[in-house]
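Peptidase S9A N-terminal domain-containing protein: structure, please.
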Amino acid sequence: MDIKAPIAEKVPRRLSIHGHTRIDNYFWLRERENQKVIDYLTAENEYTKAVMKDTEELQEKLYEEIIGRIKQTDESVPYKKNG
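Here you go.
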């Protein structure tokens, strides 16, 4: 396979909770508006799609099998009336 898995950059961040300090190298990935995070996640999704390409038929078969075992109704979750 020609495509290489993206590797997330390590950006150490010191976190102190309840008197314990630790380093989280991937805390920056929580920044949803950060373009670097968006670019990394896009690359990760493209990599996954490429790696899983050969299994698309199997994925579809498994999905259909699982859906076939679920009772499809228009009912909602039961609830107590006036409760």
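Notes: Residues 63 and 78 are 27 Å apart (CA to CA).
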